[in-house]
Batch of 2 targets.
Target 1
Amino acid sequence: MAGRAVKMRAMKRIVILISGRGSNMEAMLRVAASERWPAQIVAVISNKASAAGLDTARAAGIVARVVEHVAYPDREQFDRALSVMIDEFSPDLVVLAGFMRILTPAFVAHYQGRLLNIHPSLLPSFPGLDTHRRALEAGVKFHGATVHFVTPELDHGPIIEQAAVPVLEGDTEALLAARVLAQEHVIYPRAVRDFIEGRYTLTDGRVVRHSASID
Ligand code: GRF
């Protein structure tokens, strides 16, 4: 078209890793479609064949694969097999969504700056498992969820998004988990969309926001 410069942006490619239910993955699929992201979720990969989220992904027409950690003698070999599978899809971004594996430093280094995780607590409080029970036991008044870049230290990377929820009188682990999960489904898609739109970068180990997309 003469006289008209059309800037085409390449669709970013996202691979999502899950281990179970996959509600964060489902939220991401839903929001990506409804907001017409300039991105494609090219594959969902699970380390467990029984992960319910695999069926959800397939029903949405997404390629769903399994690489079972139990088939490998050690963490290093599993992580290598996993990254070979991930790299078949040439992702710009790898999203951990309830992926219940500790990752090797080599794996984390390979995806440095393009590997995100969501953790069900207000990090740096309560890294690791059983966050809702531990929050109740500690008597905190606020709990929540954190989206962060993955670094070799478990649940410790630079923070991208957080959502806080109140801890209410009479809360059970299940009630608190549900309140946090509802917020996870809001902040994780938003953090991923902002990543693909270049709205923040990692600078000196911290997340720096930009008012407009940088590419
Ligand atoms: C979420 O609470 C997430 O924060 C944690 O594992 C849970 C996964 O849930 N990492 P789902 O599989 O996304 O439903």
Target 2
Amino acid sequence: MDQKVDFPGLGAAAQSFISTGPKKLLIGGEWVEAASGKTFDAIDPVTEGVICKVAEGGKEDIDRAVKAARTAFEGEWSKVSPAQRQNLMLKLADLLEKHAEELTDLESLDVGKLRFFARIIDVQGSVDSMRYNAGWATKIHGRTYDMSLPSMHGEEYRAFTVKEPVGVVGQIVPWNFPLAMAIWKIGPALATGCTCILKPAEQTPLTAIRLGELIQEAGIPAGVVNIVTGYGETAGQALIEHPDVDKIAFTGSTPVGKHIARTAADTVKRVSLELGGKSPAIVAADADLDVVLPGIANGIFFNHGQVCTAGSRLFVHRSIHDKVVEGVANIASGMRLGSGFEEGVQMGPLVSKEQMERVLGYIEKGKAQGGQVATGGERHGDSGYFVKPTVFTGCGTDSAVYREEIFGPVLVATPYDDMDEAVKMANDTDYGLAASVWSTNVSTCHRVSRKLRAGTVWVNTHNMLDPAMSFGGYKQSGFGRENGMEVLDLYTETKSIVMQI
Ligand code: NAP
Ligand code: MG
């Protein structure tokens, strides 16, 4: 059934995509309705209106998708050479680029992102990531070894390792960078010869569905990538429990990550977890404030604070603390909030009503626990899920806003007196995803980078990711590294072959 929709600023291609709903599941190369016939709504966080209906996949659909992925893995896909896989991936990257404006529209609409950033970060980042991983398809290799085995009768041995695809991979992604997170997972799966079932976040299913169409257009065989939209508790749960899934690749919150690790243990699935963060930014007394002020503001307010690496804890040397807080608060209070499609808007809404309420709840807790609001501290307007960019000072180290991941535009600033104290406070967290240090002294930058317990440390910048740089967490921010050559380890098994000749 076609719906009549009108979202201001949306291009014709995206308009046409959402008008031809309800959206279906991609299983074994066919677009099918959920076995239950159920659907759920994709919501626009600016207008709170329904964008379109989407199939609500469940256990039965996951089971069909796993069967399709297994069939493709053992059949047609196993005969496709590395060079052919590379070419298919490059074709897919070209198609993503060709439809970049449409994908940007869909991502911006579904998540509430600034269209400008969605184009250069989410969509172009996805194109670049797919091309980067395509390059790996032809460069995966084992090693040869000289054996030291006894040779009684002149036997000789030849020994080597081969890298084999891990098999059928369940991929579960969050809503903050829906397309990019899907590509970060599908890319290495294709490069290594795995097959997969992608479960997008319930809040943001649209670009994954369009990606499924482009995967078919690129000529990637049926069943290699299956896409099952639906809820975490049902579709996601069925995927992590499924006995014929070899590996789960997950990006999302730490509580769900822990649940996945426990569940996957029953069938000893391989698991990689990219989880939450509460990333510190340490500003030294000698830092260049022209770099620091916009850098810290971007570090927390980019994507409306819905970034796993967001620089949400700011530690500033006491001598410049008030000046830095005032500067960042001025940037925050001057930010224009509105639809990501509008020219000049600097911050959009949060992804959902639930997320807005969660963030506002943290802000209230922060106030109740004695924090002072330097700017923001409330909802913006009364329609759309907007929260004002917020800066807190004076929060106790046990308060919720200081310790817990808020995943919204909320910064907590704390002064320090010497760098050892700053590093100690920065590391005093269960998380360890990322951190940044801001200084004009190169020795300070090097020294502090090595002392911070985090998977990524930035110096005089924050949130800068590249497909070539490995990415992942220390501590409860997860394990396994995506991107870079390290990601290949997550999608391959090493087999040792020893031959007597
Ligand atoms: P989430 O609630 O953990 O959800 C992530 C995904 O897991 C969604 O697809 C969700 O489905 C699914 N899920 C929920 N329960 C499940 C279950 N029982 N079994 C299987 N799957 C299940 O996280 P979110 O709120 O979407 O995303 C925000 C979190 O992601 C933050 O903590 C953030 O730090 C983290 N994140 C981390 C990285 C990183 O690389 N480290 C990157 C981005 C985001 P539903 O949507 O249907 O609930
Ligand atoms: Mg949405």
